[in-house]
Amino acid sequence: MSPHTPAPRARRRWIRVLAIVGAAVVPLAFAGLTMASLADTEDGIHRIPAAIVNQDEMVDQTAPDGSTTPVLAGRLLVTELTGTDSPGMDWRLSNAAEAKAALADGEVYAVLTIPADFSASVISLSGSDPVQAQLSLTTDDAHSYLAGSVAQSLGEGMVRAFGSTLTEQYISGMYTQFGTIGEAFTQAADGAGQLADGAAQAATGSAQYADGVASYTRGASSLSAGLQTMKRETAGLGQLGAGVLDYTAGVSQLSAALTAAANDVAANPGDPQKLGTLQYLTAQLELAAAKGTALGDGASGLGALADGIAQTADGAARLATSGGAITSGARSLADGNAQLASGASELANGLQAGAAQLGSADATASSDAASVAADPVGLDVTVANAVTGIGQVVGTYLVPLGLWVGGLAIFLVVPPLSRRILASTAGSGRVLGSALARATAVAGVQAALLVLLMHLVAGVSWTLLPATLAFSLVAAAAFTAFHQLLTVGLGRAGLVISLLLVSLQLAAVGGILPSQALAGPFAWLGGIMPLGWATTGLHQLVAGGDAGTVVASALGLAVFGAASLLVSRLAIRRTRRANALGMLLPAAP
User: Fold this and answer.
1) Phi, psi at residue 235, to the nearest 5°?
2) b/e for 402-436, b at 16 or more Cβ within 10 A?
3) What tens digit of pLDDT does each residue of 305-341 get?
4) Mind listing the pLDDT tens digit for each residue in 189-204?
5) Is this model's pTM higher than 0.70 or not?
6) Which of 101-105, 117-121, 414-418 is predicted with the least confidence, judged by mean pLDDT?
7) How far, rounded to the nearest angstrom, does the alpha carbon of residue 339 sit from its chain's CA centroid?
8) How far apart, in whole angstroms, are the C-alpha atoms of residue 338 and residue 478?
């Protein structure tokens, strides 16, 4: 036995122990690494980058009192999203061009655009023609399916919260407007009160006026009777009779004029000229009454003539007294009518102001206004490179994972090297190529079957079949070369290492969930591992994303596979040298 024999036995013993330990911890690695990568997802969502493009323009809002207030609703929204306590994603301010480029490159996962008319739409809620304010959210499924869904959910929640604030302000404004309408109707009520007071005063004046007219009528009747008596008794009295006749005629004229003036005042109680005429005639009648009394005293011995003169004087006095009552009643009536007119004007103004505050709208306009008030802010979502369902996204992960597990299965069934091949005189490159050709052929069949399954079940477009198949073949070849390296260098223990590596890669691969949402080092590990390259490239293909990313992923896999082949060749040389020295570590039993 060679003196070097104990060393390889000890080495095989340690490798076997490590393989057993590795096999025992594989399930723990799968579960533990996955849970560790997702342990910080709640805070990780706040690390997902997103851009805000604020194109809003300032507008002035005019208050009912005529004062104006500048409104910048877009800036308020930006401040809310970019603050330290902002909800959801890591929002950052950008312009339209930079945001579009960042979304295409995967630097941000969503772009929220605030349009130029956002503030104008917000304040329109308090006007007669309210318009729903619109926000625009753009995501890209080519970088992360769940990031777009998270952004959409956050956007909808933000819109609901902002809309609720606007609705509260709208309702508050309605109550303020109701207060203004109440003031207008209070003014109308004051006018109605004045109308009532004026009507009462007019009624009082009318009663006074009616009493005066009645008294005047009685006085006129008494005066007329006295004048008739005087006329009969003065027929043969000569100069006294002539004087009495003149007196009687004058009083009759005054009586007729006073009657006409009273009728004019009754028709136009507020006319100052007619009131003045009535007052003048009343004064003249009072003077005639005084003269009639003196004449009666001078002719007291004339019997019936004296009685007639006394009756005439009494009637004239009553007429004079009634004239004052008529004048007072007419004035009171005029004042009452003026107050009625003032109250009616104030009532009309108050009702008109209240009507103006209420406004007018048809049923359609009212329904539209109610709809906008209930949902004042809308969200327009645009998804770039949209996938039709979660099945397509999952397929872009299962295919690379299946190829990795398939490579592991190949070398469980087909040992890459045997003692006979290692002992042959063929070159290491030929030995490696022979073993790799068989394994790669099987891996190619695996890739074709997985790609067909993805197109059939997940609904991926058949026009992408050449591209998805070619990319999957590159990934299959790279994974096969790597598994050959593991088995050449470590034997079957290398397959346990493969399981541990796939556990780590699955925990670090982004795409469904953005890498920024993963905890600790998992956020960047996915970008440097072959399974991450494969999932990223295939996901970009299916979603119609950036062709440069697909090419870069394919080149990364090709370099990874070539490096695995180079190291495998070096491992074969070392193994053959050890075999020649009697230190061979069998790759397979």
Assistant:
1) -65, -35
2) bbbebbbbbbeeebbbeeebbeeeeebeebbeebb
3) 556 555 655 655 665 565 566 666 556 655 655 665 5
4) 565 555 556 555 655 6
5) no
6) 414-418
7) 52
8) 106
Quote the percentage of the chain above a pLDDT of 90.
15
Closest C-alpha among 213, 226, 299, 223 to residue 254: 223
3-state secondary structure of 584: coil
Beta partners for 381?
137
Alpha carbon 468 to chain centroid, angstroms? 43
Assign 447 a pLDDT band (cuts: 50, 70, 90): very high
Identify the structural domains of the chain with CATH numbers, from first to last: 6-37+389-580 (no CATH), 47-181+376-384 (3.40.1710), 185-357 (no CATH)
pLDDT tens-place string over residues 26-42: 666 556 656 655 556 56
SS3 letters for 329-373? HHHHHHHHHHHHHHHHHHHHHHHHHHHHHHCCCCHHHHHHHHHHH
> Are the C-beta atoms of residues 145 and 511 closer than 8 Å to each other?
yes
DSSP string covering 221-271, please? HHHHHHHHHHHHHTTT-HHHHHHHHHHHHHHHHHHHHHHHHHHHHHH-TT-
Q: How far is 480 from 495, CA to CA, in rounded Å? A: 12
- Please name the residue that has the structure tokens 């000890």: 10
One-letter-per-residue 3-state SS of 490-545: HCCHHHHHHHHHHHHHHHHCCCCCCHHHCCCCHHHHHHHCHHHHHHHHHHHHHHCC
Kindly state the tokens that stand for 176.
């303020």
416: DSSP letter: S
Confidence category of residue 177, pLDDT binned at 50, 70, 90: very low
Supply 69's token pair: 């207030």
